[in-house]
Amino acid sequence: MIVCVNKMDDKATAYGEARFNEIATEVKTYLKKVGYNPDKVPFCPISGWVGDNMIDKSVNMPWYKGNTLL
Fold first, then answer.
1. Model pLDDT for residues 17-61, shown as the tens digit of each residue
2. What's the Cα-to-Cα distance from 43 to each of 7, 10, 37, 40, 48, rounded to whole Å?
3. β pairing state of 43-45 and 3-5
4. Per-residue pLDDT tens for 6-25?
5. What does residue 43 show for φ and ψ, rounded to 5 degrees?
6. Among the residues of 1-70, which ranges form H helices?
7. Upper half-sphere CA count for residue 33 (Cβ side, 13 Å)
8. Is the pTM of this model over 0.85?
């Protein structure tokens, strides 16, 4: 399982690390409640519309050091 945080290109998110972390924290809380170990679930910020971090690393999110979706 991998959790993708989509719409990082949205004006409200603006490719921001703080917003990504906020969303990831909320989802990790939910995953724990339903029985998953959130420390073992990778999170990936993507933009499905623009293609950021889907295949190639995004220049818009230099703060993200993890893998791409594919």
1. 999 999 999 999 999 999 999 999 999 999 999 999 999 999 999
2. 14, 18, 13, 10, 15
3. parallel
4. 999 999 899 999 999 999 99
5. -115, 140
6. 17-33
7. 6
8. yes
What's the pLDDT band for 66 if we cut at 50, 70, 90? Answer: very high
Phi, psi dihedrals of residue 44, rounded to the nearest 5°: -135, 120
Dihedral pair phi/psi, residue 3, rounded to 5°: -105, 125
Q: Is 7 helix (H, G, I), strand (E, B) or coil?
A: coil
Read out DSSP for 49-68? Answer: TTTBTTSS--TT-TT--S--
**Rounded CA gap, 28 and 36, in Å?**
9
What is the residue type of 14? A
Other residues' Cβ atoms within 10 Å of the Cβ of residue 2: 10
